[in-house]
Every structure is written in C-alpha cells, then in structure tokens.
Amino acid sequence: MGQDSEDTALAAEQGDGEAPAKAATLADVARASGVAPATVSRALNTPDLVKPPTRARIMAAVARLGYYANPAARALAGSTWRTVGVLAPSLDHIMFHHQLAVFEQEMTARGFSLLISATNYDPESEVRLVHSLLGRGVDGVLLTHVDQPDFLFGQLANRGVPHVLMSSVEIEGAVRVGYDEIEGMRTVVDHLHALGHRRFAMIGDRRAQVCGENRIGAVAARLKELDLELPPERVFRCGADPAEPRAAFRKIMAMEARPTAIVCGNDNLALAAMAEAAAMGVSVPDEVSLTGFDGIDIAAHPRISLTTIRAPWRRLGRFAAETLNTAIEGGIVESRLVPTELTAGDSTAPPPAGD
C-alpha cells in the first residue's frame, strides 16, 4: 500500500472515534498492522525509528482497535495521584508559556500534576500523544490546538475523560476558554483605517493553519466591508523561521504600489518584519506601519512598542484550570470568552504624505 493510500486509510479509520468492546493488547495491534510487537512499541515510544508508511499503518490499527499503552498507569486513575494531560502544538512560543505557567500553578494548587506534550503541529503526533495520555490514566486533558477535532474529541468522550479547549479557534461542540480572534483582527484594521491607510498587506502564520487562515480571512473581510482589498499577492504565509517573515517584508517593500500598512498574524511575525525594516533602513512607522497580535511581553518594550492585540493569557490559564477542574469534579461547564484589547504602540502612524 502506498503512503497516500495509508494516509487515507488512517483518516477513515480514525473518523468514528468509537471505543472497542474489550481492551486491545499490543499483540492485537501488531497482528492488525502486520508487524512485530517490538515495532509497535517503537512506533508509540520512539516513532522516528519507524518508517513513515509502517508508522501510519500501526497508528491506524491503534486508532481502530482503541489500544492504550501502559494499563498499570491506567489503574492509578482511581488513586489519590491525580494527573492532567496537556496537549500543545509547540512549546517554543512565549504565549504558551504564559498560558501554561498559570494553568500549572492553578492545577497544582488543586492537587494535580501535569503531563505536557507538544505535537509540533503534526496530526500524526497528535494521535499518538493523545493515546499516550489516555493510556496513562489522566483525569482530564487540556488542549490548546487541535488538528483532528472529530477524532480527538470522540476518543476523549468515549473514554469519559473531561477535557477543555483553550484556544482562539472555535470548534463546534467543544467547551472552550478563549477569545474572539476575528473581532481582534477587525479592530486592527479599523485602527489602521482610521489613521488613513488604504493599501494593506498581511504576513500570516502558516503553522497554525486554522488560526492563521481565520486571521487572514478576518482582515480580508473587514477590508472588503470598507471597500478596500487584500489581494492574494499581498498575503504571505510564514513558518517559525524568522527568515520567512523577513523575506516577506522585503517583497512587500519591493512592490510597485507599496502597501503603507502590514498586518501580521502574531507578534513574532511582526517583530521579525521590524528587524528586517531596521536592516533595510525602512522607518517604522514613518514609511510603513506594522501591527501584531498576542501582546507578548517583549512587544511592549519601549524600543519596540508594537501596536498589537493583547490577549489575556494569564486569565485564560486561570479560567481553563477552573473549568477543567469543575469538569473533573462532575460539574456543569460552559465556554468562556475573554475580551481582547488593542494596545496602540509606536509602530503605527498615518501613511506618508501622498499615500
């Protein structure tokens, strides 16, 4: 079977998220995927040592059979040792540090320890890690990013594991602690429009696909309402490497009808663009205005003073802990949205004369 066929099979087999009638064993998974038990163990514990096609076949069998490793750890679920699993897309972004630091403090005060895993925006890792967390008998799960919501929430619900989504992205049926990123981006556009800007470009986030596209879409929609446009050639999708948004900034500056305002999907992208502006000798905001989103601490530094949408990360961490704890205790929980605010810094100003 080819890689594409195996990926399709994996997606199909994960779709229903149903739990099996009896607990599957490592040997069951090995038989179902046509490999040795040792290979299954490697795929679950050291996946980089297993070839991608084989790993995909094994994970499909794991999902189909509902296999969870380490049954001894599951038995601890009834003990006084209480654990919460955390599934995050990355641990290299300061915003997750803000969120999880407060969440950990709040949950520790309630007698929980944390198991934190990072998917690195990889759907296959998401499947493997949620199985690992469930196999360890966690009392609840906090998710901060989800690539496969139907499968993931189906697995958690079928196992009866309380879970909360802490995210700016709304997912139907999920209890979410978050904020309205769409409204935040609209506020950014309104701020720039009020300053007199009419030519816009955007540097978006490619890794967090749903969130990144939501923010690009929100900017384009608001500009259309204002009888302006965000043409595709003025939209750049960048990854974690700062070289990408820096290259995007250079391309924007080389445009014939150069935009006077650049909206960035997050603060890290904006800071990289500002660094490139300094390297090129382009004055921010005299020649071009730049905005971010997230409100990370460094963005407020006097030498940077980035105009951004500040998300209340610490309150989100506290509310997420309160909500998940209530769910674990059997209480009724509802989604909670926290308002964002525009912090106007020194990176935005009216466009240059004549623009």
Summarize this, please?
With 355 residues, the protein is α/β, with parallel strands linked by helices.
> The biggest beta sheet, please?
6 strands, parallel
* CATH T-level fold name of the largest domain: Rossmann fold
Give the number of DSSP strands.
12
Total count of domains? 3
CATH architecture of the largest domain: 3-Layer(aba) Sandwich
Distance between the termini: 58 Å
Content of β-strand: 5-15%
Shape: elongated
Q: Please bin the fraction of helical residues.
A: 40-55%
Q: What's the tally of helices?
A: 13
For the CA atoms, what is the radius of gyration? Answer: 23 Å
Question: Structural class given helices, strands, pairing?
Answer: alpha/beta
By CATH reckoning, the class of the largest domain would read Alpha Beta
Secondary-structure element series: HHHHHEHEHEHEEHEHEHEHEEHEE
Low-confidence stretches: 1-21, 71-80
Assigned CATH superfamily of the largest domain: Response regulator
Mean pLDDT: 85
Name the strands of the widest sheet in spatial order: 2-1-3-4-5-11
Q: How would you characterize the overall build of this protein?
A:
By secondary structure, this protein is of the alpha/beta class. The chain has three domains: 3-63, 434 Repressor (Amino-terminal Domain); 82-179 and 313-339, Response regulator (Rossmann fold); 181-311, 3-Layer(aba) Sandwich (Rossmann fold). It contains 13 helices and twelve strands. The strands form three sheets. It has a six-stranded parallel β-sheet, with helices on both faces. It has a four-stranded parallel β-sheet with strand order 7-6-8-9, sandwiched between helices. Helix 9 (181-195) packs across helix 10 and helix 11 (243-253) packs across helix 12 (267-280). The protein is elongated and about 70 Å long. The model is unreliable at 1-21 and 71-80 (pLDDT under 50).
